[in-house]
Amino acid sequence: PYWLIFPFLTAKENDKSSLAGHYELRALIVSSVCTKSTRKGHLANGSNNIILNPTFEDELSNWSGKGCNILLHESMEDGKILPLYGKFFASATNRTRSWNGIEQEITGRVRPKLAYEVTAIVRIYGGNIADANIQATLWVQSQDINEQYIKIAISQATDKGWVQLQGKFLLNGSPLKVIIFLEGPPPGTDILINRLVVKHAEKAPPPLRPFMKNEAFGVNIIENSNLDDGINGWFPLGNCSLNMEFGSPIELPPMARNSLGMQERLSGRYILVTNRADTWMGPAQMISGKLKLYLTYQVSAWVKIGPGSTSPQIVNVALSIDGNWVNGGQAEFNNESWHEVGGSFRIDKQPSNVMVYIQGPAAGVDLMVAGLYIFPVDRRARFKLLKKQTDKVIPSSPS
């Protein structure tokens, strides 16, 4: 999902008691002392603003008061309060409830499943207060006559100058009626509005992928993969034991060999994991800072299990990326031979913490790991290789 819906209250028209506080009064006072003009109004200077008469150039056309009066102004306080945009601004005055304010119906101009950005230029006046919160709210009546109040944005306004109120909303359904209004300051304080804009929110452009030139394709990011330095760089995940042993394959697993060629050889050393009390326990290594965005990383390792299992066991190479689990490949087998685990992954957001670990067999079953390789691959070259291998497997149809 691209934008989030803010919390709202709902109530059926004939069940006003379910609305708390001042929301109950909103259902009772639905008319305004201001008469809504029938003039058509206009959009803002050819923009995609769905608000009609957004800067009050057509006086109060298309606007109405929500339980209060609205007035048009060129200035107030002997010219001390002037509009920031255009020549006019409006005030919601004689407010007796915090939800009283100025509103406009936008039914038919707002479309479902489209994100909208709301920007209002507002300030307060009177009431013997210097600042107060002003909130932009959406009142939505659904096809089944249920009502929803959607909080769009809230900002602290002052009596010293204009401030900008900004937020976003999205409607999932096709409502029967939609009204946007401003509310919030205590009774006796006027809400002043100079401009209101509601338009389609522009999606942020996706980050540009870096030009992949001279990347270290095929270079293993795992430290001490061949255990040339014992088990340094490795640590046990959970309360298990790690030891180095000899007797693992010296050839790369088939999938890694296809990518890296025959020049790579393993040492024959492997990590033996014992005293495993749970399936997730195994050898682990931190690889934070070694992964690059948008590169495809291939995963390859030899794995083996010890005696004691009575059913097929799954061995999995996993990554914890900022606490999120990513599958790097897995294999299922029920014998004590060496098997290949292989897979691939890539990241589109730079992580802070990355840990790779090998897990999977049942508690009490020993785990053996040799030659873990995680290396970036050239995707285009790899696709060509996979296609070539597929063409070898699939015979051409007889003519």
UniProtKB/TrEMBL annotation:
Keywords, sorted A to Z: Hydrolase, Membrane, Transmembrane, Transmembrane helix
Biological process, per Gene Ontology: xylan catabolic process
Protein's UniProt keywords contain Transmembrane helix: yes
Organism domain of life: Eukaryota
Residue intervals of the CBM-cenC domain: 48-186, 220-362
Sample GO molecular function, one term: endo-1,4-beta-xylanase activity
SUPFAM superfamilies linked to this entry: Galactose-binding domain-like
Transmembrane segments: 354-375
Name of the protein described by the UniProt record: CBM-cenC domain-containing protein
